[in-house]
Design a protein that fits this description.
Blueprint: H1 2-46, H2 58-63, E1 66-67, H3 73-93, H4 96-101, H5 126-142, H6 144-155, H7 157-179, H8 187-217, E2 226-229, E3 235-238, H9 240-272, H10 275-286, H11 288-295, H12 310-321, H13 329-336, H14 363-379, H15 382-389, H16 395-400, H17 416-438, H18 445-473, H19 495-518, H20 525-544, H21 555-576, H22 578-582, H23 584-588
Parallel strand pairs: 1-3
Antiparallel strand pairs: 2-3
Helix pairs in contact: 3-8, 3-9, 3-10, 3-11, 5-8, 5-20, 6-7, 6-8, 6-20, 7-8, 7-10, 8-20, 9-10, 9-17, 9-19, 14-20, 15-18, 15-20, 15-21, 17-19, 18-19, 18-21, 19-20
Pfam families: PTR2
Keywords: Membrane, Transmembrane, Transmembrane helix, Transport
Subcellular location: Membrane
Length: about 600
Amino acid sequence: MAGLAQEDAVVARSLAQANKDELNDEFASEKRHSVDVASISDAHELDGIHDGLEFPTEEERATLRRVSDSIPWSAYLIAIIELAERFSFYGSSVVFTNFIQQPLPPGSHTGAGGKDGVSGALGLGQQASTGLTTFYQFWCYITPLFGAYVADAHWGRYKTICWSVAIAMLGHLLMIISAVPGVIEKPHSSAGVFALSMVIMGIGTGGFKSNISPLIAEQYKKTKQFISTTKSGERVIVDPGYTISRIYMYFYFFINIGALIGQISMTYAEKYVGFWLAYTLPTIVFCLCPLVLWIGRNRYIRSPPTGSVLAGALRILRFCLRGRVSWNPARTIRNLKADDFWETAKPSSQSIESRPSWMTYDDNWVDEVKRGFKACAVFCWFPIYWLTYNQINNNLVSQAATMTTNGVPNDVLSNLDPFALLIFIPVCDILIYPALHRMKINFSPLNKIGFGFFTGSAAMIWAAVLQHYIYKTNPCGDYAATCKTVSTLSVWTQTGSYVLIAFSEIFASITGLEYAFTKAPKNMRSLVMSVFLFTSALASALGEAFVSLSTDPLLVWNYGVMAVLAAIAGVIFWIVTRRLNRQEDALNNLDAGHVEGNLSHPAPKE
């Protein structure tokens, strides 16, 4: 009995010591946690942006409703600049298809087709029209890579935008020259000047687009969630991610105001006056860009150029790839997806002796670069989406020309897309998205993008079915595009395609802009945004492979192939991004406060 008592006493002492150790560990953990929280709070109080704000606990993050903050007025000024630029861009490009494809109407000196005719100038046919407009899309979305480099490394976003506006203005003036009476009547001369204007405008557009999107979001400076109380007394979390999403929603809203007014007015200017007016009016509106840029020059929050960090980011990637690439594809994929892939590039993972001399950054910079590369990996799927969207720039315009228009310009129907966007963007912002948040439905950015693929596919299914019935109701059967008699179907039956495309833009395109900004390191925002825009250039290049389907009698196949590709891409996108989707909050909450300008931050001390 004494032995048992002694044994029990030993066990009791062991348990007591274990409980004491556990309590000490918990206390130490809580102490470390409180120190971390305190240091974070102190950092916020010192940054001049988050001073005096109350930050949510993990429990509050899981239970409180999230809302967006108010949008700064400087962001609206930048949105006006974008409105004017998009008016000029879409207002001029909406008439490209007719300008290139259709011949100059008999007796016309301006290309105007009048009430019962189709406007035209160069008469190069549908394939040439699709090819040139596809090239223009490609060029306008490959030049942002150059514009982003110039902004991030040398000039900053504001100065790059100013110079880009000047270059685009020259392109506009050349486009007017290609369409004035006397030049338009000489197809070879007109085509040469017109092609040159497309190249110059593409350079200006690229420098503008890669920098205007990050600039507008940078007007909102808060980066951390904080607690606020509504007028009704409800405690809510003000989420910067939701605010950036809302900024881009209304940024896109302004884009489509410009696009809608520009496209509708220019199609009528082209039809009843001529192409010279359809190119002149956008140029006049474009003059608002330098004016508003100058007016708000002292109001905009600007990020200075910090030197190119692309080389450093690629060096980190190369370092992480060491020993992970194998001749066995399955092993390589497994190695690249490993949880510790990026850890080896962190200074804290290297001893002082083995650390390379170029590793002068901190651990947080690696997390930022990791997040940027993950965003670029998401963008790899966007060329398939843009492939479907680009149909509204060429083939759907040509489809409208084979239907009964009753005096409506065949290229005015494309305005149903921005018109639908102007209606449904506020509906999503005010009704649909808040309702989903209240129901705790996680309609995250990646979920939105995936849904955009499926609505884009639905738009192409609509177009394919409609094309089938055009062939059935056209006197020339499967050769409707070259038939002098149009189908009896009303052109307004195209509405379904354009509305579905508009929904796909809300889910995929707007969210893509948001994702590019929120996931990019601060000194790589223009670059990551340009990568997102570059996916449209890839889609245009990919679209060249499908130009052979852009003619009778293959147009049903054209739309059907686009629908299938978008649907398959949407399924695969959903599968491969499920894990990344679960990390959304963690990626957004990376603290980049001490990684501002370059890779010269000291590594942590050992």
